[in-house]
Amino acid sequence: MTPAELGERSRSNLDRVRGLVALYERLAGPAAGRPSVQESDLLRSAVVLLHATLEDFLRSVATSRLHHAGAELLRTIPFVGGDGRKTTFTLGDLHAHRGRSVDDVIAESVDAHLRRSSYNNLVDVAGLLRDLGLDATPIRPHAARLAAMMARRHQIAHQLDRNEATGRGHHAARSISRAMLLEWIVAVDGMIRAILERL
Prior knowledge:
64% of the residues lie in helices and 0% in strands. Helix 2 crosses helix 7.
């Protein structure tokens, strides 16, 4: 995928996130007060989709670079058809790939590895960029917002954004801010653009 294609795909994904925010705005309306949990679930969905947008971009960059990577980096990629961890193989493992080119087996191994990969924090993101031979500095200006978005996505995806505080005035889910989500969208977009400039 070319940088232009990566940019277009990311813009399209970010438009989907912005679409959820716009839908929330229409549903919640201009009324003062805290929106219902059901209304703010649109913002929670947008956070999950925003994180997926970031991961999709990172996987797409990794795919384009790893398909043509050198031996050193490919040593870290498990061989396709294995348990997802094994990076060595026997001639018996190769038997299933008879008649195929080495390039095809490498590409399939890379794709299988990336389908299982996830980037849940900035250490994961920076590590991937370094592994790909890319500068991790595009993360720095957006680090705090990206880290907050990733932490919140984890809270939403794994704890349903449950609010542990009980009693009068507490909703079943934690409060979520449209303004903060918009800042997170800007951070993801900014990081993606900075990486694209370096490709």
